[in-house]
Structure formats: C-alpha cells, structure tokens
Amino acid sequence: MTLRVLAAMSGGVDSAVAAARAAEAGHDVTGVHMALSSNPQSYRSGARGCCTLEDARDARRAADAIGIPFYVWDLAERFHRDVVEDFVSEYAAGRTPNPCLRCNEKIKFAALLDKALALGFDAVCTGHYARSDGTVLRRGVDPGKDQSYVLAVCTPEQLRHALFPLGDTTKAEIRREADRRGIQVAAKPDSHDVCFIADGDTRGFLAERLGAAPGPIVDTAGARVGDHDGAYAYTIGQRRGLRIGTPAPDGRPRYVLDISPATNTVTVGPREALDVTEITTGAPVWLAPPPAGPFGCSVQLRAHGEVHPCTVEPGPDGLRLLLATPARGVAPGQTAALYDGDRVLGSATIATTLRP
Q: Which of this chain's residues are annotated to bind ATP (predicted)?
C-alpha cells in the first residue's frame, strides 16, 4: 500500500536513511525538519546539541539527495512548553525526567503526528531503532542503538501511524548505506546529552532558571556532611560533584540516595543503599491488552539500562513492580518500560521506590 508519509528529518544520518527507505518502498514521502529552538545556534559543537541551523541545512541537503519535498516547521513554542519547562519543573520537584522520551511523547508523536494527520498524511516516519508492524512495538536488532524504551510512551493509536524503517539494521550498516546513497551526513556524529543544553552543563542550566537555593547535604544518620546551592542540581545515584568536604568514616565514595524538595535536603550514602526492590508508578500507557491481574515480565528503567525480571501488580491508580533482582539508582520521574521478550507491553512514570 502506498502511504502519504511525513518523514521527521533531524539533520542526522538516521532520519535521513529512514526517509530514503520510506521513499524507496514506494511511499509518497515529504521531509520536515522541526525547528525546536526560537534562537538556534549556527553550528553544533561536535556531538553536543541539535536543532541548529546546521542541522536544518543538513536535513535539506539529505532531502535533495533523496529527491523528496522538504519543509521546516516551527515547533519551538510547543517544545519549550512541553519539554524544556517540563524538564526544569521536574528537577525542581526532586524528580529525574528524560527529555528525549518527553519529546517523543509530546512533540514527535503528538504535535507532529497530529499536524501530519490533519494535513492528510497517513504516517510519520522517524529514524528510531525499533520495529513495529503498526500494532506491536519491538526492540531494534542493534542492542547498542535500540530505542524502544523512549518510544514506550506512545499510545496504540500513535503506533498505528508510525514507521520505523531502521529497526532491522545496525548503526554501522546505516552509515554505510547513507554513504552509498550519497547522503552527506553519513559520518556526522550522533548527538548526545540533553539536546537543548548544548554545553552539557545541566547544573548551570537549572541554576540559571531556578536560582540559588542553598541547603544541607546529610548522611543516612541525618548528620550534615556538606552544603549545596540547589537540590535540583542532583540526581539519585550521582557520585561526582557532590561537594562534600567530610569523607565517609570508612573512606568509601558516597552517592546521592534521596532528594527532598520540601526540606531542600540531599541525602548521601554508600553505593549499596541505592538498591531498589519495589517501585510504584502512575497510570500506565499500554501497547498490549491491559492485564486483568498480576503478571510477570521484564522492566527497563532507563535508556540502554539493565533489564530486570519483575512481577507487575496493576492497581486503580498505577502499578506496583516487584523486582526479582535489585535495581540501582532508580529515581522518581524516570520511566519504567515493560517488556515481554523484545516486545514492549507498556510504560509508566515512576512515583516511588522502596529499598530492601
């Protein structure tokens, strides 16, 4: 079946090859670059940042090489509201968000897809490394690039209108294919870190927006061992940059165990105190039929993170996850993606954790 496809083109190699494959499959493809910054920089710095003027030009050149129409859509206001402001407010509340996951949820598979459907397109095509037949979402075959975790927030309706042409291919093969197709970004570095913090200084980014909020750093006994300029600058599991002047009695490194916005306190302790055996979540989004009762599956708690066997107990307001093996450094605000083998069952946002 020939589809009218809107290909989201970031200016990178993955989205360019995805668009090329969709066109080669016989679909009527139009490329679109999402302008997500109201004041884009002229050039990216290596692999840091994205959505720059350079990226827009790279996307246009790739569309020309493929031979498809190309447009730039301004989604900067929506991106700032739904991704950047959400990122800041989540940290201010002591939670740890994943902005890439939020961008997929709110921008690529909400704002972009909604606009595409309104304009008569049948589907949106992206360069994510995942596999889907329109009803089932599975991991990509390249374990180092699998992006099913950040797509686990999609709804069944969104999945029906999504194409992921790269899921059956490794990244190395995609770069070689791009070179064969004459796509100039074949060797372009992947972007990493938080895309809207091009210099990688998350602490500075948050401090600029939330201001100084000094408070204590305490150990598990409640003794003050240091001071911070803002609890929002810390994440559970963090080891470096704690600014603790007093070493632990046993000389071992300390890690962030808890962040309390109510008391503006950061609690630190030994690495093993990060172990979590039970998780509660908010309301889930199911990509499989919702279960009627408890069931076993596996859970992934961060992008490219370890997978843990677990028992899921559905409740009226969310899920209770009982982990067969402890997970380390789990933070409220992160997403728990549930899997049956390589199939994504659904996802939910972590609300609380319980240590053994």
A: 8-15, 34, 127
103 carries an active-site annotation: yes
Numbered residues of the known binding site for ATP: 8-15, 34, 127
CATH of domain 4-180: 3.40.50.620
212-269: which CATH topology? SH3 type barrels. (2.30.30)
Q: What is the mean pLDDT of residues 38-62?
A: 71
Tens digit of each residue's pLDDT (9 = 90 or more) over 75-116: 989 999 999 999 999 999 999 999 989 998 999 989 999 999
User: Exactly one of 50, 103, 125, 297 is catalytic; which is it?
Assistant: 103
Question: The pTM is what?
Answer: 0.92
Which residues are documented as binding site?
8-15, 34, 127
CATH classification code of 275-354 = 2.40.30.10
Q: Which residues of 15-46 are buried (b: 16+ CB within 10 A; e: fewer)?
A: bbbbbbbbbeeebebbbbbbbbbeebeeebee
Please determine, for residue 42, whether its predicted confidence score (pLDDT) is greater than 80.
Answer: no
Q: Is 154 a catalytic residue?
A: no
Catalytic residue among 51, 125, 195, 310: 195
Distance between CA 198 and CA 31 in Å, rounded? 25
Domain ranges of the chain: 4-180, 212-269, 275-354
